[in-house]
Amino acid sequence: MIWDAYISLQGWSDNDTPITNKCPIKKQCAADILTIFSDHCTVKFCHENGKVEELKRRWCNVCKDDKKYVQKHTKWKAFHVSSNLLCRQHIQSHYALYKEHCRELVLTEHHHAMPRKIVKANTEVLKGSQQTLDGVFQRAAPKEFSQESVLKAVAEFVVCDDQSLLVASNASFRNCLVAMRPKSITADFPSTHDVSVYIHTDFVKYMDGL
Length: 210
Ligand SMILES: [Zn+2]
Fold this sequence. Notes:
The chain is an alpha+beta fold.
């Protein structure tokens, strides 16, 4: 762009103040960008020949307020194209500040705004914790029948499969259990109340352990 070079050579015009701001309502999905960038704004540039040009972009507030940066690159370089992706890629260079602002404002950091090495490290941590959870959920198969193991298995079926508590007392369900162990008696099967109490107790234990 010809005038891009021109602006770089000539420095910033006095008419660089935003003249419009047509996005008063900030989209929630871009809220993290606003921790570093301004909202979209239209800025008027004056060429040497008097021609006035308007451009709608976002200011990087950090670069714009950095005197050394402006001296070296001109203020123009702090006026970025409006693409959220490109803005977030630029935020990577201000990540420490972005992270701090997101924490203060209780915003979720966008992965595009994170430096690649941090994204990679987070992925590794996630993989590691997943393996740990996999280990937690590996259960040894019961070797012999017990009322407790049936109660536990039915409770897990209710919770993990989002089944109704009433399934424990369902005749067809009990017939399935009897088919697997014909000599079972009624007392071997947990009632809906038993399952409800078991789930509640197990949940309380889990919460206490956190
Ligand atoms: Zn910047």
